[in-house]
UniProtKB/TrEMBL annotation:
It comes from Stieleria magnilauensis. One of its GO terms (molecular function) is 4-(cytidine 5'-diphospho)-2-C-methyl-D-erythritol kinase activity. Its EC number is 2.7.1.148. Keywords: ATP-binding, Isoprene biosynthesis, Kinase, Nucleotide-binding, Transferase. It catalyses: 4-CDP-2-C-methyl-D-erythritol + ATP = 4-CDP-2-C-methyl-D-erythritol 2-phosphate + ADP + H(+). InterPro entries: GHMP_kinase_C_dom, GHMP_kinase_C_sf, GHMP_kinase_N_dom, IspE, Ribosomal_Su5_D2-typ_SF, Ribsml_uS5_D2-typ_fold_subgr. Pathway: Isoprenoid biosynthesis; isopentenyl diphosphate biosynthesis via DXP pathway; isopentenyl diphosphate from 1-deoxy-D-xylulose 5-phosphate: step 3/6. This is 4-diphosphocytidyl-2-C-methyl-D-erythritol kinase. The active site is at K11, D160. Belongs to the GHMP kinase family. IspE subfamily. It comes from the Bacteria. HAMAP family: IspE. Transmembrane segments: none annotated.
């Protein structure tokens, strides 16, 4: 049976304002998301049985990721923080089930998920996995011109999912301005290549929990200045206009995040902030060289206990490799 392989990327929210609370339990957001080269690995195989099977493992190994985070993964024990659900609470399983229902597909899928992106980090890892899974499924079944249906499935799975879908013409943007609850996307065509240092502090945060702590601002900040600087590739003005409205509510739940932000700031990552609802933080580096040097320095200061990576902007949807049966 046909196999599809791809490498779903994570995202960072470079700008995130929340202008209003809605009646349906969601919030209106005004955000600029950029995809980065911190990636999971996804392999999807079509199988004759009418079910979805999923296995998930950490890459390069659970011991190695646990070691960086200062967690014990001895004797085959997977630390709580690194447990990835393989039932229908995994967004990949939910997205593929919705795909089968939408298109009346009778056959099933076997999925192998290799995780590198931490969960509950605000990096959209599960969302990206889900979006790429339905893109893979559409390619396996050779469904053309289905981008609207895929977009519908994606937004039913989660607000961040549509960002990671391939666009109709496959020219996936590296960044997008997202509004509504996150599903209304305007691709940003001229995304400057930016380098970041990203830090995940070995604690996850629940997105719903962070939104629940938010006080919606009376005078929301517009993304206009950030967007203008971003389109011009003006790093300095971009840095001045970056913000994340979810920082304050996330800090109410996890005050220790302040120390991590302070460490990034002290290393010269100015500005630095949370991505999405946290718990991961990131800082804008001047270039790849500075980002590498800062990671080296932080590794000695912060590890074990914090996952640290240099990251760079990449297209939000990654090409899919098809291995015919
Ligand atoms: C924080 C962000 O990552 C920024 O990109 C997103 O807004 C979150 O998107 P997501 O993880 O895909 O969130 P969803 O799975 O759609 O929603 C999870 C929960 O977060 C809250 N939520 C999410 C998105 C939104 N625009 N308003 C909300 O209030 C709701 O309580 C919702 O029940
Ligand atoms: N494919 C998946 N990979 C990792 N975690 C998953 C996956 N599917 C479901 N989950 C569960 O979803 C929860 C949140 O994971 P996710 O990676 O979406 O968080 P996040 O990085 O905060 O995302 P977002 O930025 O969209 O809020 C975790 O508790 C995890 O157990």
């Amino acid at each position: 049976m046909t196999i599809a392989r791809t490498s779903p990327p994570a995202k960072l929210n470079l700008f995130l304002e929340i202008p209003a609370r809605r009646d349906d339990g969601y919030h209106e957001i005004d955000t600029v998301m950029a995809a980065i080269d911190w990636r999971d690995e996804l392999e999807i195989e079509s199988i004759p049985q009418p079910r979805i099977e999923l296995t998930a493992d950490w890459l390069p190994s659970v011991e190695s990721v646990a070691g960086e985070l200062g967690l014990d993964a001895g004797a085959g024990r997977v630390p709580e923080l690194l447990r990835i659900p393989t039932d229908d609470s995994n967004l990949v399983v939910r997205a593929l089930a919705a795909f089968r229902a939408s298109f009346g597909v009778k056959t099933g899928f076997r999925v192998r998920l290799g995780k590198r992106i931490p969960a509950g980090a605000g990096m959209g890892g599960a969302s990206s996995d889900a979006a790429h899974a339905i893109d893979c499924a559409a390619q396996i079944h050779q469904f053309d011109n289905v981008s609207e249906v895929l977009h519908g499935i994606a937004s039913s799975i989660g607000s961040d999912v549509p960002f990671f879908l391939a666009t109709a013409d496959s020219q996936s943007p590296m960044a997008a301005h997202a509004t509504g609850r996150g599903e209304l996307l305007s691709p940003l065509k001229t995304c400057p290549s930016i380098h970041f240092v990203v830090a995940y502090p070995s604690t996850s945060l629940s997105t719903a929990g962070v939104y629940a702590q938010l006080n919606v601002p009376q005078q929301p900040v517009s993304s206009a200045s950030f967007l203008q600087a971003f389109r011009r590739g003006d790093r300095e003005r971009m840095g001045k206009a970056m913000m994340n409205r979810l920082t304050e509510p996330a800090l109410k739940i996890l005050p220790q995040l302040n120390e991590l932000l302070e460490s990034l700031w002290q290393c010269g990552l100015q500005p630095c902030q949370l991505t999405g609802s946290g718990s991961a933080c990131f800082g804008l580096a001047k270039d790849a060289e500075q980002a590498k040097e800062i990671v080296k320095r932080l590794e000695t200061e912060l590890q074990p206990g914090v996952l640290l990576r240099v990251a760079q902007t990449v297209p939000a949807a990654t090409p899919i490799e098809i291995e015919p049966s």
